[in-house]
Amino acid sequence: MKKVLVDMHRLGKNKFNGLYIYSYHIGQQLIKKKPGNISLFYYLPKDLMGFFGNGVQYIIQKSLDKFFHRKALGFDIWHSTTTLSWYMPASKKTKFIFTLHDINFLIENPEEVKSNNRNLKLIQQRINRADHIIAISHFALQQARQHLQLGSKPATVIYNGCTYITIPPKENEPAYQPSVPFLFSIGLVQKRKNFHTIIPLLKNNNYQYIIAGIDNYDYKQIILAEAAKYNVNDRVIFTGPVTEEEKVWYYKHCLAFMFPSFAEGFGLPVVEAMYFGKPVFISKETSLPEVGGDVAYYFSSFEADTMIQVFNDGMAHYNNTHPQQKIQQQAGKFSFETAAEEIYRIYETL
């Protein structure tokens, strides 16, 4: 019987970011897919004891554990599900699996050299300790090889998944429901999401642009300034965070899904939108082409005229060819259930 400790401590942080969603859903599927020869433990903050029910045992996360983790003694495998983590097993006998989501802080904030170097050093220490590396996209692995020393460490790409594939989504009407066709984006309203580049697409039509997610960042003002420039302030709507059921409503009813981000480790909202057969317009940057495949419409640049042309051509193609089934098939390639199975295969090798 192998004792496996999975570090899920980031579930105690912002529940609206991608890392929380990843940890939550991979945690559920690891319990569901657990083989009989694995004894599974989750490392979580005290207030989340019992969070996943009775299918797993729990270890309480404490800040002091970063200095010496006695509670990790006796485990065969320690699996870190986050990239920027202070926690590692103290015992050399414990095999260590390290997850690389991305190192996009180098793209987002290239001017913060000191902070970036500090983060790279922390990540390199965990890579040096790792017996196996999991990357959530080929881009994330390539990026790590470019900026870090992976050597001959075994590394496996295991994509994130779309929960809708295995659990049909429920839908609730949100507080704000547009009465006209609308474009939809979701995510933390930070500069890497690049949402302001969508504003020119509101020219010469009556579309609204719905942006869901935490929006108390300075970047929101850039979006508002762009909306003022095009005189479409009243058609750019910030909903703030929405529930899973409200998110489903926006996916199902939007004209198109927009995700022009320039820094992603994966891009889960793109998969979710594709599940509903929606046209997705995304950037060619970082991991997004792996997710969108040949069914997404790609912005070749962020110049307004180019983006308008891509959008108009893409919508014409979508309306003429009706590729909904092909789009949904692309979404079906990404499953947390499959991800959990692939993780267990790695456990078996250690």
Mean pLDDT across every amino acid position: 94
CATH superfamily of the largest domain: Glycogen Phosphorylase B
Number of strands: 13
- How much of the sequence is in beta strands? 15-25%
> What's the N-to-C terminus distance?
13 Å
CATH class of the largest domain: Alpha Beta
CATH architecture of the largest domain: 3-Layer(aba) Sandwich
Strand arrangement, major sheet: 3-2-1-4-5-6-7
CATH topology of the largest domain: Rossmann fold
Count of individual helical segments: 11
What does this structure look like?
It is a single chain. By secondary structure, this protein is an alpha/beta fold. The chain has two domains: 2-161 and 335-349, 3-Layer(aba) Sandwich (Rossmann fold); 166-331, Rossmann fold (3-Layer(aba) Sandwich). It is built from eleven helices and 13 strands. The chain has a seven-stranded parallel β-sheet, covered by helices on one side. A six-stranded parallel β-sheet has the order 10-9-8-11-12-13, sandwiched between helices. Strand 9 (208-212), helix 5 and strand 10 form a beta-alpha-beta unit. The radius of gyration is 21 Å and the shape is globular. The model has no long low-confidence stretch (mean pLDDT 94).
